[in-house]
Amino acid sequence: MKSLSRRFLISVGLMSLVMTVLGTLGAFVVFERELSSRQIGYLTDYVRERSSNVDRRFSNLSTLHKAAEEELGRRIRHLDPERVMPLADSYFPLQADGTRRSLPKFFDGMSTGGGYVYGLAAFISRAKDTPPEQMRALVAAFGLVSEFGQAARREYDNFYFFTPETRLVMYGPDRPDRLMFYRHDAPADLSIANEEMAKVTLPAFDPERATRCTNLQRLIQDTKGERLATACMTPVYVDNKYIGSFGSSMELTGFFTSAVKDTPSGAIPLIVTSKGELIAYPGFTGIGKGSEKTLADYERRLGLKKLTVEVQKDGREHGVLESPDGKQIVAFGRLNGPNWYLLLS
């Protein structure tokens, strides 16, 4: 009898223990799911807000370019054709190599009857072949680029008007080379005709006349691939005719590094193109340079091309999904301006 009672008590005790353990495990699973759900919800909200803030920078840039387009058209229409060449000679005189380049005073700084011009450079290849209407646009753009560039300097440290024929006027007072490349060093036969920046806003490729951004690539004046940037351009139409584009370049170690700072603990922030090419990553912060090799290494190690394919398959503007290798949770937000993605891995 005692043996039976003892077995009964033991079985009840074991049952109670099992139930307690199962209850604890169940509660833990519920708690873990709730915690995971909250973390995913937090990441979704965070990436939505952060991507919206980054996207706003591109929207503001597009608005700046559109305003400049409208003003350039107004200035072109009111520029007396007889004044074009005298002004061209005073802004960017003809050089022995057949180019036109701006005078040093326009970069160094000079007063202009109540105004002040600085940080300005111009380069016009094959100057004698420049069509009259294009020279008129470049002359009209000279003062405009300075004024718009100065007004937007806090947000964008450069602003320029250019044509696919490698004729440009640029405001960039903070460039390390003081724009000497365009003012002095650029070869007379420099051509950007085959560069992505010269093609993306052409009527054939941009019939919507929208702002387009290039992939991350070396600056034209950088032969070593150590200074990488993306350029965002907006086509310029005057009287419904394409005459060039306004643009602003953003270097890898500038605006984009600030976009991936101060993220949630344990999350790795990235900005990638729709092709899975890396634009920004915390590892670039403070380096001062981002080489093409470094970029390729990061892209390969992080498996960005496969990850971007999964994000695009998802189809949402914002969301959370599992990485292709199943090892990470990735929150994503689409940057509509350049058609890129902000990712939190």
Q: Can you walk me through this structure?
A:
There is one protein chain. The protein is an alpha+beta fold. The chain is 43% helix and 21% strand. It has 9 helices and 15 strands. The strands form 3 sheets. Strands 1, 4, 5, 6, 7, 8, 9 and 10 form an 8-stranded antiparallel sheet that branches. A 5-stranded antiparallel sheet has the order 12-11-15-14-13, sandwiched between helices. Strand 13 and strand 14 form a beta hairpin. 37% of the residues are buried. The mean pLDDT is 84.
Residue share in β-strands: 15-25%
SSE pattern, N- to C-terminal: HHEHEEEHEEHHEEEEHEEHHEEE
Task: Give the count of helical stretches.
Answer: 9
Query: In total, how many beta strands?
Result: 15
Largest sheet: 8 strands, antiparallel
Helix residue percentage: 40-55%
Overall average residue pLDDT: 84
Over the alpha carbons, how many angstroms does the gyration radius reach? 28 Å
Distance linking N and C termini: 64 Å
Q: Judging from the principal axes of the Cα atoms, what is the shape?
A: elongated
Which stretches are low in confidence, meaning pLDDT under 50 for 5 or more residues running? none
Structure classification: alpha+beta
